[in-house]
What does this fold into?
Amino acid sequence: MSEVQRKHFLVSCKPCGHVWSLTPLPMPMMEVANLVKHARCPKCESGSDRHFMAGEAQAAAWAQQLEARG
Ligand SMILES: [Zn+2]
It folds into this structure.
């Protein structure tokens, strides 16, 4: 697990490929599970059944975007 994955719970949307931080970490697992359950993709509004945890490569790309934005 990469550094960025320890600091953010990153979710990836299957239909549109969007990657976003559901919540900063650490956070109690119960609360994370609750957020995951009710999550909606900010881009295409797909439900949590279409999401999966972002992989290391996706997390790295996400972190790069964040840096580029400042
Ligand atoms: Zn989406």
Q: What stands out?
A: Residues 13, 15-16, 18, 41, 43-44, 46 surround zinc ion (CB under 6 Å).
